[in-house]
Amino acid sequence: MLCNGDCLFINNMENFRKPLAVFIAMSFVITAVMALLLINFDRRAFTAETYQQAFAREDFYNKIPSLMAQSIAASADTNQLPAVMQGMSLEAWEGFIRVLLPPEVLKPIGDDVLISTFAYLNMESDLVQVNLTPVKASMMSDTGTQAVLSLLNTLPACTFEQIAQITFNVFAGGQIELCNPPADVLPLLTPVIQGQMQASATLIPDQLTLVTAPLQDDPRQRLLDVRFLMRLSLILPIGLLLTLTLIIIRSLQDWLTWWGIPFAVTGFSSFVIGLLGAPIFGVVLEGILSSQLPDYLPTFLLEFTGDLASAMVRALLNPVLWQGLILSIIGIGMTGVGFYLKYKQP
Predict the structure, then answer these.
(1) Dihedral pair phi/psi, residue 85, rounded to 5°
(2) Rounded to whole angstroms, how far apart are CA atoms 32 and 338?
(3) In this structure, what are the phi and psi dihedrals at residue 140, rounded to the nearest 5 degrees?
């Protein structure tokens, strides 16, 4: 009677052990896929190099003149600007900067902004700054004069009254209404423009601060806490895998099969997400950035949430795709060897 009871208990345990192992294996797949996404997001989405590569592909640096025009126009006191620079609208500033700073100069400036931004996010710095030294250097050179002349050429031709007013204001130090002067007037204006540009350059700081860390309740600390939890996400699938090993594995063939199948399913799922998940993740991430950016990043990045979302999705999904492919190959190989050992046995 005792033997029958023990045997019944053992049989019940055996019947319960396999469904429990299947449940744990399924839980491992779900948590492992999530851990791959979270860990890659933490590793890739908070480094400047990720966005330097992505923004170079998506022509983000072409938008820098707009950013710099907004920053300069917002920070400069127009009453203190030289006469030739007064009256410039935001659009005029942007066009001026595009001529003043060619693309080969804009990219290093953009890279400096990205590096400064992510140093701020990672709490390596309390400021987000943009380096304006190249701007000042160009303004004080012949390039600055040519930029102003190119800007004037895009404006409507000056009337006789405007020419008279410009002549008077140049000597009186008053505000000049920007227009396109006749060609015979340009030699007279060029020395004035050169002097005004050099004076303007002295008013622009070498570093322009875009964001300063708050003294209290810094939202970056909450972000670091979330990233720490992301790094811990791998603990759960590892724990499930060890639990699966204790419950069901009794031989080499068991180990190869019960590890191989979850690995293969996890890898295939990750591969599919990395291959096809960009549109869905892009929309979701753009919504998150739109609501969270004001707490973490410079205000100007609000206009580029689509670019940021695209760059972050690329940074997230590309390594997930390759990691999933490798994990699939490992899992299929383990499963194949496991079934071979099973059917090889007499």
Answers:
(1) -95, -10
(2) 22
(3) -85, -5
Hey, which bits of 36-173 come out as E strands? 127-131
2 domain residue, yes or no: no
Q: For the residues of 200-225, what is the DSSP string, one character each?
A: HHHHS-SEEEEEE--SSS-HHHHHHH
Q: Name the packing angle between helices 305-344 and 2-44 (round to 10°).
A: 150
3-47 pLDDT, tens digit each? 555 555 556 556 778 888 899 999 999 999 999 988 988 888 788
Report the b/e string of 120-129 with b at 16+ CB within 10 A: bbeeeeeebb
Task: Indicate whether 115 and 90 sit together in one domain.
Answer: yes
Task: Mark whether 191 and 289 lie in a shared domain.
Answer: no
Q: Could you list the beta-strand ranges (E) of the chain.
A: 127-131, 207-212
Same domain, 99 and 174: yes
Q: Is 108 helix (H, G, I), strand (E, B) or coil?
A: helix
SS (H, E, C) 241-300: HHHHHHHHCCCHHHHHHHHHHHHHHHHHHHHHHHHHCHHHHHHHHHHHHHHHHHHHCCHH
Written as six digits, the tokens of 159 are 């009337």
Q: Is 174 helix (H, G, I), strand (E, B) or coil?
A: coil
Say how far apart CA 214 and CA 40 lie, in whole Å: 29
Domain count, the chain: 2
Q: What is the pTM of this model?
A: 0.67
| 193 touches 85 (CB < 8 A) | no
pLDDT bin (cut points 50, 70, 90) of residue 2 is very low
Residue 269 contacts by C-beta under 8 Å, 6 or more apart in sequence? Answer: 29, 33, 324
